[in-house]
Amino acid sequence: MKKILVSLLMVLFVASAVFANGSAEAKTPGQEHYELILGTAGTSGTYYVVGAAMGASINKNSQMLNVIVQPTKGSMENLNLANSNEIQLGFSNSDGVYWAANGTGIFAKAGKLNIKAVMNLYRSQAQMVTLKNSGIKTYGDLKGKKVNLGPSGQTIVEVSKSVLRAYGIDPEKDVTPFYLAVDEGLSKLKDGEIDASFFVAAAPTAGVVNIASTTDIQLVDIDKPILEKVAKDYPFYGKGVIPAGTYKGQDKDVNVVEMVTEIFAGADVPEAAVYEFVKQALETQPQYVNAHVSIQEIQPEFASQCVTELHPGALKYYKEKGLR
User: Fold this and answer.
1) What distance in Å separates the CA atoms of residue 309 and residue 60, rounded to the nearest whole number?
2) Cα 144–193–74 angle (5° rounding)?
3) Using CA atoms, how far apart are residues 37 and 273, in angstroms rounded to an integer?
4) How many other CB atoms are there within 10 angstroms of residue 275's CB atom?
5) Which residues does 31 contact at the CB level (< 8 Å), separation at least 6?
6) Which homologous superfamily is 2-122+262-320 in?
7) Candidate from 14-18, 240-244, 299-303, 319-323 with smallest mean pLDDT
8) Which part of the chain has CATH 3.40.190.10?
9) Average per-residue pLDDT in the chain?
């Protein structure tokens, strides 16, 4: 309950910042109303910033919805909370939604969760960072090294493991694995306690920008044939490039796995509520686009191209717009 109250206060704060010149429209008496809890991640992360801005915009413009933006531990918690109907909507990388909906990957033992895709949001890059003097150029050079594979319990870990396996490297035996959050991983890298640190975020990422200002770092490249293989084997991964100059001292393009951040819903959330959520999230995007650079990518055509089965409410909207 405390989390929800804190979330409400934070959403009100974002709303006042984004919509300083407007007030929320009154809900129409007699119309059906829905309260939707949207699970994001920590309040310092992109999920929360984007979710709070989107939620504020929807609440301002919709006479049907009240969106409560709730900080959480991220993708895995959001998927499980939606499955148990404790939240109605959540943020996740697309691999988590795909595995949860199909009972595969990291959900092979747990089985299918009762969730459906709603909308793609923006692309993030899978970034492996090392020190410039480490001698590590590609993922193939990580064998025998101390490597942070990503935060424990998050789908992000599976991305780094997939790339390592494509190189023939066992992520549990051929490297010394660590499972650390972004900031802790970068801190240990800077202090020389580990050799490389992995995370997924839209580049440029603040943590890397900060460490690059005082330490000579470089991004670990993926050989193109390996990247092709990973993208082919996993439908939710794409091929991306972080351009030269994105970070201080980065003098060449770096090949990376790209992932899509998306919003999903519990399968039992009413069709009308999800339809209205998608409609308002897309059609009022210009009103909250300045809250974060990633919001520029939230566009109808991209939003509709989820690789997991769509919730009927989302599908209805996309069909009306000729997108599916």
Assistant:
1) 29
2) 90
3) 12
4) 20
5) 63, 64
6) Periplasmic binding protein-like II (3.40.190.10)
7) 14-18
8) 2-122+262-320, 124-259
9) 90
Kind plus residue range of the DSSP H or E element containing 92: strand 89-93
Structure token digits, residue 190: 């800077």
CATH number of 124-259: 3.40.190.10
196-201 and 65-70: which strand pairing?
unpaired
Over the stretch 151-192, which tens digit does the pLDDT of each residue have?
887 888 999 999 999 999 999 999 999 999 888 999 999 999
Strands 146-148 and 196-201: parallel
* DSSP class per residue in 187-246: HHHHTTS-SEEEEEEPSSPHHHHHHHTTS-EEEPB--HHHHHHHHHH-TTEEEEEE-TTS
3-class DSSP string for 158-190:
HHHHHHHHHCCCCCCCCCEEECCCHHHHHHHHH
Task: Find out whether the peptide bond into 235 is cis, omega within 30 degrees of 0.
Answer: no
- How far apart (Å, rounded) are the C-alpha atoms in residues 139 and 156? 16
Q: What percent of the chain has pLDDT over 90?
A: 78
Q: How does pLDDT run across 257-284, given as a tens digit for each residue?
A: 999 999 999 999 999 999 999 999 999 9
Q: Which amino acid is at 8?
A: L
User: Helix, strand or coil for residue 65?
Assistant: strand
Distance between CA atoms of residues 109 and 130, nearest Å = 34
In this prediction, residue 7 has a pLDDT band, given cuts at 50, 70 and 90, of: very low
Question: In what helix (H) or strand (E) does residue 317 lie, and over which residues does it extend?
Answer: helix 312-320
